[in-house]
Amino acid sequence: MLTYTQDQLDRYFRHIGYSPKDAEDDLGRLTMLQLRHMARVPFESLTLHYSKHHRLSLDLEDLFEKIVDKGRGGYCMEVNAFFGAVLRSLGYTLINVGGRVKKGEYNGWNHMVNIVTINNTRYLVDVGFGSNGSVNPVPLEHNHIFTTVSPVRGRLEYKSLSQHTDPTNQRIWVYSTQENSSAPWKEMYCFAADMEFFPADFEVMNLSTMTSPQSFFVQTVMCMWLLLDEDDEKKEQRPIGVLILHKGYVKRRIGDKSEIVEHFESEEQRVKALERYFGIVLTKKEKEAIRGLPSELKTRCGHC
């Protein structure tokens, strides 16, 4: 099973601004790594729009080059495969498992998370679910409620689904979120914590997710990452919000307040925003690759 070398780990640590000396135990180290990763490695779909091939590789060496060497990110299967390999290289015990995102009903297998075991306790570790995702390791406990980025809360339940044909004998873990303490809970995705998915399973899932015209990632140019309280003197730097580029705008959410930072009406403006807010610089060929795609921002003609 492929892991990363110590030199690669050191380069990754420098990339996310993490010092191994900052954590004292395995859970503390994992918690800090997840926060620093999510604040530096964006959850994004750019390769599906700004590349000639419009394809995504789950090869771990390709992922390292993309994330560490090129300063990019990826969607769930990319960033969770990469982060899982980092943890495995550090000696953590974990498995990669599949999930189903809920959109009306639960879709087919289209999500990936890591289940990490520390001192006989299993934790959900997901660095690839965007603004609605968990930001810390979450113990697998039924009805466990926790804060993601305040005031948003998350919840884990172990239960049957309405789509199950034999609900008496079927259970699965369900991750839900709540915008604030008075808002309704919304189920986000379910995952099979007891069934390890192999790389071949994710290759099948990845093919569908990166090629289907109905795929959110195929339809949408998006890029986001976690915002940390950089003024917090505590080493863990608590999460305070998210920065999101979605189609034609950039939005910043701090606590319960959201603001549109910038609108753009052309590809040139969006490409500049990727560099300004996320430090992502596209090559000329990458910029040209989106031409003709439904996701392209076409400059509005004032004379038309």
From TrEMBL:
GO molecular function: acetyltransferase activity
Origin: domain of life: Eukaryota
Keyword Oxidoreductase found: no
UniProt xrefs under InterPro entries: Arylamine_N-AcTrfase (IPR001447), Arylamine_NAT_domain_sf (IPR053710), Papain-like_cys_pep_sf (IPR038765)
UniProt keywords, alphabetically: Acyltransferase, Transferase
One Pfam family it belongs to: Acetyltransf_2
Stated family: Belongs to the arylamine N-acetyltransferase family.
Name used for this protein in its record: Arylamine N-acetyltransferase
Organism: Neurospora tetraspora
